Amino acid sequence: MESRDTPVVKKLLDNINWRMEKSYxxxxxxxxxxxxxxxxxxxxxxxxxxxxxxxxxxxxNMGMWVVDKDYQNDQVGHQMxxxxxxxxxxxxxxxxxxxxxxxxxIQEQYGIRVKTSYKTWYNYGRINTDTLKPCTDxxxxxxxxxxxxxxxxxxxxxxxxxIPREEYIQNWIHHEKSRxxxxxxxxxxxxxxxxxxxxxxxxxxxxxxxxxxxxxAIFRYLVxxxxxxxxxxxxxxxxxxxxxxxxxxxxxxxxxKPLQNIYLKDAINVDTNRVYAVASNSFxxx
Length: 286
What we know:
The protein is about 30% helix and about 30% strand. It is an alpha+beta fold. It folds into two domains: about 5-100, Gcn5-related N-acetyltransferase (GNAT) (Aminopeptidase); about 120-275, Aminopeptidase (3-Layer(aba) Sandwich). The strands form two sheets. It has a seven-stranded mixed sheet, with helices on both faces. Helix 3 links the parallel strand 3 (about 60-65) and strand 4 (about 95-100). The radius of gyration is 19 Å and the shape is globular. The two termini are about 25 Å apart.
């Protein structure tokens, strides 16, 4: 994939109403564009793209498996994956998110029994400020990202994500459309969150916190300037406080379905109790 392909690829995302994915794509391409391929017609028209980011040689995180609707029965997606596989670091594990029913299809079609981790649910709507009121004395502070040592933030992110991803996260949190805050307790990072805007969408991605009180304070800080606006975030179904918060705000999508985090080799089981919103369902473990 070349830089000149980006506008066409983003148009494919617009065609399927994947708005925030354009932000994820920008971040991934800025981090390392070598893990992306496009599918073209004989006349050089782009009809699909697929990619991965290898934050570490031991793990490839795939995402953005997109094919134009007029070509979805032509094995285009499979051909892109095959082309992409030649770019994987030798011996690396592969992780991604899929619809749950795809787990059995992968085994039936390819004979591959993938390892499953957790499931996420997409939450979308307006956050009622009444649900953001503190319910206990807060023994921590919420600070802008500029007031916290970069190494402390990256260390906290690595502990939760389990694979360091310094360049990717820095590209994400320091974007002009990102609003980032850090929670600090006893001089140690105990949570952080990012609200990213793209087109007319607002997405909290990620929000990591040591407990639900820290998470609520981070939500409060991030949405302060977006009151009344629609906001989305994807939470692990295992994180009960996050799902309860979404339910209290009528944000649980009734027409949606979960996404399953899967791996080719060993599953990476992140601490979902500290993941209130994943960074994305592409290019990462959580």
